Structure formats: C-alpha cells, structure tokens
Amino acid sequence: MTVTGPAFAAMIAACTALPALAHPHVFIDTEVEIILNAGGMVDAVRVTWFYDELYTLSIIEDRGFDPDFDGVLDSAEKAALSGFDMVWDEGYPGDTYVLAGETPLALGGPSDWTADYVDGRLVSTHLRRVETPADPRDVPFVVQSYDPGYYVSYRIVGTPKVTGATDCAAMIFGPDLAAADRALEAALEEYYGSDLEGDFPAIGAAYADEVRLTCPARS
Length: 219
Hints:
Blueprint: H1 5-14, E1 26-36, E2 42-51, H2 53-62, H3 75-81, E3 96-100, E4 103-105, E5 107-118, E6 121-134, E7 141-145, E8 152-156, E9 161-163, E10 169-173, H4 177-192, E11 209-214
Parallel strand pairs: 1-8, 1-9
Antiparallel strand pairs: 1-2, 2-6, 3-4, 3-7, 5-6, 7-11, 10-11
C-alpha cells in the first residue's frame, strides 16, 4: 500500500500491538457522488474524504506544513498536498466498493484528484470510473465505503449527489451495529485463539455505510 492517506494507516496497523486492531484509529467522513452518462448508465463515482483532526495533524506535521499553527496553508503547500493519498499499490481497492444489486463491479484507479486543508482537516476528492457501466434501472446501484481491516473507519455523510439523472434517488443506509459488534467479537476470539499468523480478519464490511441509488424502470 501507499505510505500516505488511508493506506498509510493500514501500514501503521501492521506495526501496532495486537489489541489495538480491535477498533479503528483513523476516522474519515465520506461524501459520495454517483455520475451517470448520457445513456443513463452509472459511469463513475466521485469520493470526498474528510480526515479526522488527529490524523490531519500527523500529516501536516510530517510534511512541515503550517509551522505557525494558524490553520492556513500557503499556495505552495496546498499544491504539494495534491495527491498525497492517491499513490496506491496495484490492486488496492481504495476502500470504495460498488455493486449492481449484489454483483461487485470493478473500478478503475483514482483520477481527477484534489486536496485541501479546511478547518483543521485534510479534505481530498477523487474520481473512480466504473469499468463496465451499470444500468441502475435494472437493479439498485450500491456504493460502500470501508477498510476491510477496520483500522480506518469510514462514515458516509451529507446528501449523496446524483449527476446526470433527475429521476433517480440516492439514500444512505447504515450497518446493523449490534450484528457488526458480534461479528467483530467472534473474529477477535478466533484470531487470538490462533497462532496469530496472517492478516487480521476482514471485519470492516460489517461496519460499512452504503449509498443505494434507485431509478424508475425504463418505460
């Protein structure tokens, strides 16, 4: 994984004492925009990440930005931030997953990224193309945001935006937290009862928020 952005947190997790793996340590508020093409197919997803203040501080200090701690970056520092969390290893899913109904769809790598420092938080955006555009009038189109290892906690916020269609609706649905907690407890019991080799159980999906896009059927 990259050494910056959410994947940097995953790298830290690998070096952290095992009990710390039981809950997230980086918190990211996420906004989602679903983009439809002229044919009414879902063509891309734009993701905005609002990093928590503590993680933001670690990145700002590591790069030597904002030395007077006034919460303002100059133009050169802002330019240097661009893409700070967009250097991904091949195959890294970017903690964004899309489905047509229950069928996972492949996404291209990040593009058109931006970064800023607003009210003490790093804010970045990027675009992900759907490799095979999906028709949301056949089955609901779903966007999920989560870190499988649950070191990073994503929370989808705001009102999901739909671009390219006026008759579609996007809504946020949260996880069943009680069920997720039970799954985490069971995973921890199994993990600590093993030889502790291999990756930590991929429990993050159980805690995932998701955006569901629904559109009326074609007449």
